[in-house]
């Protein structure tokens, strides 16, 4: 007999999240019920808790959370290619068949009903033998993979990533995975930079080191119209703040490529004369679909090359979701914060 209710985190407004009991969902013939095992706290969840959710499609009075790894616990009779006990990623707006529900899937609730469930669309299957604390990073790695692949990485290219949060770390790992022999991560959080070093990534603390000197020491120098510049080929902004763009403009050499993955909420000045003379290639965050990034991410996770589970530094029960949202913003102590069930 199924339970009568389940716990659900409801976003109310900035600084307000309630955990309530909701009626357990009925599973129709074309539906699936999944039990969330672990859900990552996204930067958008943190921003919503600080400032309000509309900018990130985290709507008032909705269940929210969208970085879940879940277990199939009920199957409608018409659903194909799934078994009880399978692990899945509820596929954001496609899971609930409403693209405005990208961030309000219900990952911070105990259960989700997936209507008209289709494998490869509504849910993506995740290997059950991938450790849960690694698998829960699937969605952040989608973002990092998009940015990394948009730069066309390979063994003949080196890279610098601005930002050692989970997106920056995931992008840096994927740049390594795609063959870049040297990848440096730049940040001001020594805690997060130490985590980056555990993955064989070079680091620079731009609060205590001169970034240009450090970059030239690691990647060599090139002489350009703008003077001496760093020899790294690829750059990725996972910060979304002006200092990342300023740093790129200060150190990047001719033909450098920059992917802007961090979301800039304020205009950032950039000298277009430098863009012109240096022939920089500046693009957005990449456009590959989650489904298309999946094969590379799961191959990386299956490889055992990376101790990804170590990136989950904090796990809270859903009753403590407000504490989790606060900790998620703490760059001095937290890398990835999750809700666990």
Topology, element by element:
Elements: E1 5-13, E2 16-23, E3 32-40, H1 43-51, E4 62-63, E5 67-75, E6 87-90, H2 92-95, E7 111-114, E8 123-126, H3 132-135, H4 138-150, E9 159-162, H5 166-177, E10 183-187, H6 190-197, E11 202-205, H7 211-219, E12 221-224, E13 227-230, E14 234-237, H8 242-251, E15 257-260, H9 272-278, E16 281-283, H10 290-303, E17 312-316, H11 321-328, E18 336-340
Parallel strand pairs: 9-10, 9-14, 10-11, 14-15, 15-16, 17-18
Antiparallel strand pairs: 1-2, 1-4, 3-5, 3-7, 3-18, 5-6, 6-8, 12-13
Helix pairs in contact: 1-11, 4-5, 4-10
Task: Give an account of the 3D structure.
There is one protein chain. The radius of gyration is 21 Å and the shape is elongated. It is an alpha/beta fold and 341 residues long. The mean pLDDT is 97. The strands form four sheets. Strands 3, 5, 6, 7, 8, 17 and 18 form a seven-stranded mixed sheet that branches. It has eleven helices and 18 strands. Helix 1 crosses helix 11 and helix 4 (138-150) packs across helix 5 (166-177). It has helices at residues 43-51, 92-95, 132-135, 138-150, 166-177, 190-197, 211-219, 242-251, 272-278, 290-303, 321-328; strands spanning 5-13, 16-23, 32-40, 62-63, 67-75, 87-90, 111-114, 123-126, 159-162, 183-187, 202-205, 221-224, 227-230, 234-237, 257-260, 281-283, 312-316, 336-340. The protein starts with a strand and ends with a strand. Strand 12 (221-224) and strand 13 form a beta hairpin. It has two domains: 5-126 and 307-340, Quinone Oxidoreductase, Chain A, domain 1, CATH 3.90.180; 141-283, 3-Layer(aba) Sandwich (Rossmann fold).
């Amino acid at each position: 007999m199924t339970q009568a209710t389940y716990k659900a985190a409801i976003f109310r407004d900035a600084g307000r999240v309630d955990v309530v009991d909701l009626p357990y969902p009925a599973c129709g013939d074309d539906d699936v019920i999944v039990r969330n095992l672990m859900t990552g706290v996204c930067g958008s969840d943190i921003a919503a808790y600080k400032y309000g959710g509309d900018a990130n499609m985290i709507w008032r009075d909705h269940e929210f959370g969208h970085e879940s790894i879940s277990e199939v616990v009920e199957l409608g009779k018409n659903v194909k290619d799934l078994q009880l006990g399978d692990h899945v990623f509820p596929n954001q707006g496609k899971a609930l068949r409403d693209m405005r529900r990208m961030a309000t899937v219900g990952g911070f609730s105990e259960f989700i009903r997936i209507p008209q469930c289709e494998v490869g669309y509504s849910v993506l299957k995740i290997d059950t033998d991938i450790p849960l604390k690694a698998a829960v990073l699937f969605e952040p790695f989608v973002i990092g993979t998009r940015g990394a692949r948009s730069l066309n990485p390979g063994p003949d290219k080196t890279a610098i990533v601005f930002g050692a949060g989970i997106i920056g770390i995931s992008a840096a790992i994927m740049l390594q995975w795609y063959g870049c022999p040297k990848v440096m991560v730049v940040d001001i959080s020594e805690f997060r930079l130490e985590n980056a070093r555990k993955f064989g990534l070079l680091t620079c603390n731009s609060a205590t080191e001169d970034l240009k000197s450090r970059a030239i020491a690691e990647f060599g120098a090139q002489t350009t119209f703008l003077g001496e510049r760093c020899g790294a080929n690829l750059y990725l902004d996972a910060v979304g703040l002006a200092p990342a763009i300023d740093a790129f403009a200060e150190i990047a050499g001719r033909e450098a490529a920059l992917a802007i993955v961090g979301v800039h909420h304020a205009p950032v000045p950039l000298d277009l004369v430098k863009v012109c003379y240096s022939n920089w290639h500046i693009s957005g965050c990449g456009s590959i679909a989650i489904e298309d990034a999946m094969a590379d991410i799961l191959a990386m996770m299956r490889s055992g090359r990376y101790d990804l589970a170590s990136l989950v530094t904090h796990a809270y029960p859903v009753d403590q979701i407000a504490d989790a949202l606060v900790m998620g913003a703490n760059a001095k102590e937290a890398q990835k914060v999750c809700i666990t069930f």
